[in-house]
Amino acid sequence: MKLKWMKSLLVGLFCLFSAVSLLQAEGVNNNQNNTDTSTVVILMGPPASGKGTHGNFISKYFNIPTLSTGDLLRQEVQAKTELGQSVEAAMKNGDLIQDEVIFALLEKQLRQPEYANGFILDGFPRTLNQAKTLDALNLGIDFVVNLQVPDEVVVSRISGRRIHPASGRTYHLETKPPKVAGLDDVTQEPLVQRADDNPESIKKRLQAYHEQTAPASQWYQKMASQKGFVFIQVDATKGIDAISIQLKEQLK
Ligand code: ADP
Asked: Where is pLDDT greater, at 145 or 22?
């Protein structure tokens, strides 16, 4: 047991150090350099707080891509890779995935040239440890956007949520139904419920959010002026347009 734990730690550290050296060697998004023009945004919030929707807005606003660790993991599950098979059950249960898996995925993804001008991190960091590890990379965070939604709203949003897997378009059975029940408006392909959008998993994801992610967002709020980024608190129960207006004003 102890050996297994040590092995995980070593693998995690290896991934972290290779990510640090890669990113630093390539000077990717290093804001300590005055010529930096890239934008790095961290998007935080409980499940179904609208990270996808508002992430899209921010992505268009700055013309930078979104990197969602949840999406990366789902792609691995879908493609039935070894990694995907190893995380499938934990994701379905609503458990967090080990740091070393997440760091390895991120490192692989951040090698792509499309992230050279900045990116939005959606779903990462999700724990204080992940936040501090990211901090050590000195990527030059510009904004941390924290979406706040009460638990009961999360539960109602998730239980009615249906998605079109190919495009990521989301619907809600009551508040945003598709034109034809069960079908995507654009392609008419079937809508599905995410494997982890079940009551047991929702409970666990909310618990993980309160116990592990909220301390990370509180840490960001506390460190904002010291680290030189803007922390944006958003009441994510407001309408999409109202939130876009707020973001436009504060993403400066
Ligand atoms: P949501 O915000 O709706 O819970 P995500 O798509 O962000 O959904 O994540 C889905 C699942 O992927 C999480 O419940 C967790 O199992 C895993 N996951 C995603 N990002 C991380 C991360 N940074 N650390 C650990 N697990 C993660």
From this structure: 145
Whole-angstrom Cα distance, residue 103 to residue 11? 10
Among 76, 51, 81, which residue's Cα sits nearest to residue 234? 51
This prediction's pTM: 0.85
Residue 169 catalytic?
no
- Determine what percent of the chain falls in helix, strand and coil, rounding each to the nearest 5: 50, 15, 35
* pLDDT, averaged across the chain: 88
Helix (H) or strand (E) holding 65: none
pLDDT tens digit sequence for 86-126: 999 999 999 999 999 999 999 999 999 999 999 999 999 99
Is a pLDDT exceeding 80 seen at residue 3? no
Q: Is 162 a catalytic residue?
A: no
Closest CA relative to residue 146, chosen from 70, 52, 235: 235
* Residue listed under structure tokens 């809508």: 191
Which of 69, 100, 146 most suits a substitution to test ligand 1, by most atoms within 8 Å of the C-beta? 69
Give residue 163's identity as a one-letter amino acid code. Answer: I
What is the spatial distance between Cα 106 and Cα 250, in angstroms, rounded to a whole number?
27
* Nearest residue by C-alpha to atom 5 in ligand 1: 70
User: Ligand 1 within 6 A of 94 CB?
Assistant: yes
What single letter denotes the amino acid at residue 227?
Answer: K
